[in-house]
Structures are given as structure tokens and as C-alpha cells.
Amino acid sequence: xxxxxxxxxxxxxxxxxxxxxxxxxxxxxxxxxxxxxxxxxxxxxxxxxxxxxxxxxxxxxxxxxxxxxxxxxxxxxxxxxxxxxxxxxxxxxxxxxxxxxxxxxxxxxxxxxxxxxxxxxxxxxxxxxxxxxxxxxxxxxxxxxxxxxxxxxxxxxxxxxxxxxxxxxxxxxxxxxxxxxxxxxxxxxxxxxxxxxxxxxxxxxxxxxxxxxxxxxxxxxxxxxxxxxxxxxxxxxxxxxxxxxxxxxxx
Amino acid sequence: xxxxxxxxxxxxxxxxxxxxxxxxxxxxxxxxxxxxxxxxxxxxxxxxxxxxxxxxxxxxxxxxxxxxxxxxxxxxxxxxxxxxxxxxxxxxxxxxxxxxxxxxxxxxxxxxxxxxxxxxxxxxxxxxxxxxxxxxxxxxxxxxxxxxxxxxxxxxxxxxxxxxxxxxxxxxxxxxxxxxxxxxxxxxxxxxxxxxxxxxxxxxxxxxxxxxxxxxxxxxxxxxxxxxxxxxxxxxxxxxxxxxxx
Lengths: 251, 246
What we know:
By secondary structure, chain A is an alpha+beta fold. Chain A has helices at 3-22, 27-36, 50-58, 63-66, 119-124, 126-137, 142-154, and strands spanning 70-75, 78-83, 90-94, 113-117, 166-169, 186-191, 208-212, 231-236. Chain A has 7 helices and 8 strands.
């Protein structure tokens, strides 16, 4: 199989899972996985050796970006700064609970989603990840996390999404999902007030995919009350952060 | 070895944007690029050719070429504009907010291909870009067809920006350039498939553009207050595999 085909399939396997769930197409699979991860695993299963976590976080972006980035690692009380950066980017290894709240793998302890947020995302998306993680590590439930996020926006403790917010997810060592492929290098763009069709995403042949940030399912729109609408666009790229071609990763 | 290759690819990628800034660079980049243009190549297209050479006689062919910039799922419902003697004209009304055109050389940097009548750059803009970026491009096209020189066009753009007659980029403005047809420029006739994103007054560094290993290329134009980002993608609009790298 050609390199491009490998990449396309790999990326699609990861992202289509998201899209399918978002569109209500992955119901049976989602249900099965909900049973697989019904609650939080013991905390130790989510933690990593500190230096390994720093290295994994940095691998989300090319060295030219991540070497000067702030690095956060997960501790028992939540994320903490391990390395102070100077270029405005922030790299960290997200755990499963920073994904959509109705994701079937929300408690999957294997997830290691390394990403490097640009300055706009570091200022506006990162605080949400940090809040969620602090709540999780304190043993709070999903409902409590959701309430805290809504309160954070209502009280202006959480910032509005900044224009141009995006992140790099190009680590070949990341683990994004149990689904086939597990991983694919891509860029993500966080947008407000934009619909999927505005970028031509999720249409046949389009290299752009998208999914809602808070909940994949739109079956219970009442859950969205108090949350700013955020749509995430994904564009696959050819290489991992170390410059190796993505198509060869799973060979 | 691989490192070397990646470095070379990154440089080529940036060079491609600079040299073939056709559709994404504005007036000031014209001026900057002009300085870097070798006199011999500039001489090849020193002035505008007869208008007929820029026009496509077969309107259906121009519509098809414009549509080839995006996957059929997008292009089939897009508005299509074709080049007439005074500017771009709507040939097909759309329903999805996208607008597809075939850009010509004068919307580019003031490089050797500025007046190259062979340039054909298919682009499909989303609605946000159609309301902002495309309006600028259309105005520049009108000026070019009216016989203004490069220098006059640059001055006109500056004036329009100063008078706020030229709209800022709308949030989310982007376009598809996935056509395997078209003609980029003499030094690189066939561009790789790519997406472009347009911002006003934005530092390319915010997306980590132009750094070694970054898949993002960016150019900032301080006079037009325009920043363009380019991300190469894997496939042409027809679904076939694109080139490995630019």
C-alpha cells in the first residue's frame, strides 16, 4: 500500500471514530466501549514517569516548536508546570477525560494524547483542560466537572476562545484511542461561531474533518447550556514530529 | 539523511509560497518580491500581455477548472466565477457559500510570473474568505484588466487599506487549492494540494509556521495586514494521491 494511502487510512480510522460518534453512527461500538470504561481507573494508571511525560509532551510538535514551549505534567492534584517556556506554546499529555464528555473512552487509562497548544490555545483551551484534570484527580464525577466548567464560564474564570487557537498532535508515541490505528499526525483548530459546513468539513473527499468540542452527541442539547459552542477542525499531515513519514508508523 | 531531506522540504515549501504567492500575497509582498526577481525572468513578462491571452475561450472549461480546486462534494454547490474582460463574473450561482475561481498571475507576488498569461490557479473560497479575501482579489483583477501597472496596483491597494475600503479577513476565512490541473508558474507549474487560511494582522509564529519540521507555512504582509497560512494535504480534489512533498 502506498504511503499516502496508509496515512489516509490511519488518520481516518482515528478521526472517523470521532465523527461517527458525533453523527450518531457509532452507537453499538460506543455502547460496547462505555461498558469497557464505565468509571475512573485507579489514579496510578493515568500517571507517568515525569521525564517520560515531558518527552512525550514535547514529541507532539517539531523540536523547533516544543523545545521552547512550557511543559505541563500530570500530578496527583492535576497538571503542574514542569518546564517554563518562552515561545508561548504549551505542551502536555492529555488524558482521556479532556476529550468530549460523552466519549466512550472518557475513562480509558491508556490514552496519552500529546499535544502542543499555540499561544492562543494555551490561554483559552488549556485552562479548561487544567480545570477538568484537577476535578478528576480530586475524584469528582462527570456531572460535577461539567458544572464546574459551566460555572467557570459564567464567572469569567474561564476565558473565551481566542481566534487562531490551534494545536499540534504529531507525536508518533501518542495513544489517542483503542480503535484501529490508535494515532495519526494532525493539526487541530479550535473555532467559535463556525459550523462544519463553513470549512467544507466531513464531506466526501474533504481533507478537513470536524467534531464538537464538548459533546459528540447532540441528543441532549440541554447539556450544552452554559457552554460556549466550540467546533474542532482536524487536518491530517504527512509526517510525525520527528520528520518520519506517518504511513510507516504501523508497518 | 532524513533530517537533510526534511530540511530541504521545509525550505522548498517556504520557497514555493514565496515564489508562487500567487493568490495569497498582497501589494507589499509584490514590492518585496519584485526586488528579488531576476531581471532576465522579469523581462519575459515585463508587462501585461494582450487580454485575450488571460481569458479562457471555453467558459465550460474554466468552470470545470475552477471547480477542480475542491472536492466535488463542495464544488458542485459552489458559486463559480469566470474571468471576463473587466473582471470576474458569476457564471454559476451557488448554494453552499463557497466561491470557486481560476486566479491569474497578477494576483500574485510581483515575481516573474506576475503578467504570465499561462498562470491558472484554481481556488475555492469558503464564505468567510469570499466576503473578505476574494473581494480584494477581484478588485485587483479589475485594476489589472483596466491596464494599471504593478506599481499602480500596489498604490491602489495601499490606498484602499488606508481608507478602509478593503475589508479585514473574516474569522475562519480559508480556501481549497486541490486541483491537479492549473498552472502555477514557470518554475513550478504544478503545485501540491493545499489548504489556505487567511487572517488579518496575525504573526505567522502563532501557528509555529516556517519552523523546521512544521507542516505550516506562513507569510505576513504588513501593508495589507494580511497573514496567509498554507497546509499541504495528501490528496487532489479527485481523490488521487498528491505528490509526497512540494
